Amino acid sequence: MPDTVSLHIDGQPITVPAGTTLLNAASLAGTTVPTICYHQHCTANALCRLCVVEVEGARVLAPACVATVAEGMRVHTRNERVERSRRTILELLHSATDVSEAPEIQQQLDDYHADLERFDDCEHREPEIIDDNPMFIRDYSKCILCWRCVQVCAADAQFTYAINFSGRGFETSISTFFEQSLTESSCVFCGQCVGVCPTGALKPKREWLLEQGQAPAEVLAATRGPGKKQRDRK
Amino acid sequence: MVPTASNHLIHSTNTAQPHINNPGHSGLLPALLKAQKQNGYISKPVAAEIARALQVPLADVYGVIEFYALLYTEPTAARVIRICGDPACSIAGSHAALQTVCANLGVSPNMAAADGGFMVERSPCLGLCDQAPAAMVNDQALGCIPVGVPAAIIAAKCLAKPAVVGGSLRHLTRRCGTGATPALATYVADGGYSALTKAIQQLTPAAVISELKASGLVGRGGAAFPTGIKWESAANAIGAVKYIVCNADESEPGTFKDRILMEDDPHAVLEGMALAGYACGAHRGYLYVRAEYPHAQQRLAAAIAEAYAGGYLGNNLLGSKFCFEIELRSGAGAYICGEETALFESIEGKRGFPRVKPPFPTTAGLFGKPTVVNNVETLCNVPLIISAGAAAYRQHGTEKSPGSKLFCLSGDVARPGLYEVPFGVTLRTILEEMAGGVSGGTLQAALFGGAAGAFATAAHLDVRMTFEDLRKADLPLGSGVVMVFNHTRNLRTVLEGLAHFFAEESCGKCYPCQLGTVRQHEILARVAAGYARAGDTQLLCDVGWTMVDASLCGLGQTAATATLSAIKLWPELFAPNGKAQPTP
After folding, report:
1. Per the CB < 8 Å rule, is A84 touching B61?
2. ipTM value of the model?
3. pLDDT at B465
């Protein structure tokens, strides 16, 4: 197998190492392909499909985060067909989920001229906030099902397996075993899930309480366990 | 006392290695199905017990229970009545039947009665479309249920009958439609297992593959991939362990051909799998049958036992060095598991999420090993080809579509049923000469290929039923569904029903399908209710084409094809009439 592959990205010839994803190849060609679920340190699952690009001769669009380069490939990263899919995916996402605290998605909605009123009276996912531990809250009305939290809790990082899914399809949500509280689960409160959440669905408890208007002293009182020992400092 | 799982729920489903007590993650779905059957649901302690016994994380076990429609975390009922809500049954009155049954029992749909006696559900297609409206009461299949006589449905008095099997060729279906399942001796007396014997005793694996390639057989599950090429690439794949998977998760609304083949000729399926194993160098096969087909599962299980006893499965088949095992697996209520990689995930004990391709199954399939996955009908063709030879096989059909094809006729036809014809006959021949023509009126539309298909009209009556002719006519052959709607049927309602199916069955993995199927259903529901809005056609096209273009798997990529074909054929169906929808 040759070490490099030559292809055209938006008409521009480029040679890249074999096995490069179209996402990285586009980046090398100076083009940014938008992504939502993709995270550099997580397994790419090609879920959000925002990164789809047109590969000439292919029946359907290709997810740039996982599709790899091939010799002679002609890739279009942003034509009319690609734009329709990206705009519609963003409109659909906005119609189902609260993405107000996801600045990257806000920017993408803008970039693709998404019509935010298009699905105005449709079913919205609005589960209640889960506040079951002193470390972080789970507001799944902001969850876009990017799977990052499930992945870092499992084989992508922590091997703790505290969370998985409940339901399927539109009704899918992230869940513990029989929706037990995180404190009853195998969660070790490593915080990696909070770190990779792109939408504010997982949020440190103190940040959340401050947003609710609580004073810092109240927040500390509420999140510091009653039995906490003061460390002696000398 | 809390029921425990460790002893009676976990057992080795591994017939090849009965000494292995812990099948691990792959044993999860069988254990959950067993718990569901024994207790009517899977309680938290039982789920935890199964998780511990199989060494699967608790959250993953819950994720699997939640994924499958026929696994419940709350108690169900002693009698669970499932009434099909998909098009062939709904035009025959199944929605009314659901209401009358609920009213008669005093229960709401999907809610178990307080005393645990009954539960009534709307079910996705049960594969009994030839006997619409259809239902199931526990494991009993009901056909032509009397819509106005709920007591007869509740008491399961209207059992499904043997299907009408007809057509101008009876190769694949030669033993079907008799109402009896041939036992091993009968099958062998009728020439059964002679192809396997011939292959093992006279042909090299490579010769089997070249015969198959010469026959021109392509997959009958819908994708029409050349079977010989698939087998060849699995045979050439690197690795000592390879698998054969029979995809018997037939769930496409309107399709019931595989059910009839499995119920009426189970040994033919096993023979096809064994031939695949011999040709590809695989020693183990999985036969994954949807949970809604308990009869097919029973008959296959009996046939597998007979085949082991008769030396057609197991070690040293027919005295040769070739060994081949088959394990029967049940689905648990998920259309998506008919997608080949989702099916692998399901056998592996996971949620049925389709995988990103490549890698393709012949390189990295089940358990990451090279795998051949074939549809039931495809595998049933193989013994015919090996017995008679590719040249004889090609005497029927056309150059580009050799052999015969099974068509499932349902809806408004005089004689719904399974029809075997050589490729190349016209829709008119099948519909009018064989199935007795349109019933209740004139032909308005025929849905080709199932829910994932597209509509044909009277203008297509003389199209020849071949891959090449249908492709030219922009129609899918799919799994051989021809669901007929006469001129009195409301196609908006039909479309709403199809959209409901996809919204229920989307796995939720990729955004276009997870979100698009629900929005498509909402729009089509208001169109069907008479409240189409300006812009709805454009909305359906944008959502539809985004699903076609950008979805991860075949489910999402075809979830809008029926809608998009209807927009092309009958744009007036989606025209706004200015009526404002009352707010609920």
Report:
1. no
2. 0.95
3. 97
